[in-house]
Amino acid sequence: MSFHLEIFESLPSTNTYLMDLTKKNAKPWTVIYAKNQTSGKGYAGNVWKVSANENLTFSFYLETDFEYKDLIFLNEWVANGLQRYLSQFVSEVKVKWPNDLVANDKKICGVLIESYRKNNLMHTVIGIGLNVNQISFENIKKATSLKLLTDKTFDLLTVLSDLMTCFLDQFLLLKNHLFEEIHQNYQNYLFRKDTLSVFKINNELQKGYIRKSDVNGCLWVEFINGEMQVFQHKELELIYGE
Q1: Can you tell me the distance from the alpha carbon of 153 to that of 155, in angstroms, rounded to the nearest whole number?
Q2: Do 114 and 232 share a domain, yes or no?
Q3: What is the SS3 assignment for 224?
Q4: CA 118 to chain centre
Q5: Is the domain of 203 the same as that of 160?
Q6: 82 φ/ψ angles, rounded to the nearest 5 degrees
Q7: Are residues 169 and 233 in the same domain?
Q8: In a shared domain, residues 112 and 130
Q9: Cα(74)–Cα(182) distance, integer angstroms
Q10: How far apart are CA 93 and CA 190, in angstroms?
Q11: Could you tell me if 231 and 140 lie in one domain?
């Protein structure tokens, strides 16, 4: 099993391009890489902005037999794969719920996953934005890159190839529905788990502990008064890296 790479100088969105391709003739493990992405999409409607030719913006296509309820494990599998790959360069790599990668308390990678089910198959496009060689992030205090972390300049195509090889090596976890193993690995690297943290909820700051995420994709937070609450994405904001 291998991946098929297509490279573009510029695209509005690699996810949009590849999603359209899946409805025509795209094969699983097709990878679309744009050296410059002009209208990148982030999770939950956010915009993903990157500096052209310094970072990786790419999407790849998977087919599985998943139901929609299983997609949380695909999300976790992607996050785990990124954590596994990035850990060879920096020791402190965590997954910030639901799907950002944080290295030394700063965001280094974002993920956007889009899926639809047709002909008894789940068709999934996984978009990844990874900060590689960019060293200036203007006023974004929470961002970092591989170059800032290692003081080395990386070849983007080498990073892309090595990362896709990492995903290929881990694909049996998805294919064989080893969801419990995927979920536990995700818990092991959950950012600020069991660490006193500050959250913004309805414009108010509260202190508490992230205890876990669950198989429905929700986050469990225990507040300092002992109350446990369960949150969906966008219902709270973790304050960190100020």
Answers
A1: 7
A2: no
A3: coil
A4: 24
A5: no
A6: -65, -45
A7: no
A8: yes
A9: 9
A10: 9
A11: no
The tokens describing 190, both together, are 């959950």
Give the CATH number, domain containing residue 232.
Answer: 2.30.30
If asked whether residues 221 and 137 sit together in one domain, one would say: no
Helices of type H across the chain = 14-22, 71-86, 146-150, 156-175, 179-188
- Report the pLDDT value the prediction gives residue 51, as an integer from 0 to 100: 66
Q: How many structural domains does the chain have?
A: 2
Structural domain span for residue 99: 4-188
pLDDT of residue 43: 44
pLDDT of residue 67: 97
What's the DSSP call for residue 26?
P
Q: Give 127-159 pLDDT, tens digit per residue.
A: 999 999 999 987 677 899 999 999 999 999 999
Residue 32 CA, chain-centre distance (Å), reads 16
**pLDDT tens digits, residue range 177-224?**
999 999 999 999 999 999 999 999 999 999 999 999 999 999 999 999
| pTM score | 0.93
Tracing tokens 């994405």 back to the chain, one arrives at 233
With beta carbons less than 8 A apart as the criterion, state whether 126 and 41 touch: no
| pLDDT of residue 160 exceeding 80 | yes
Same domain, 111 and 173: yes
Rounded CA separation 23/214 (Å): 32
Please report, for the domain that includes residue 170, its CATH number.
3.30.930.10
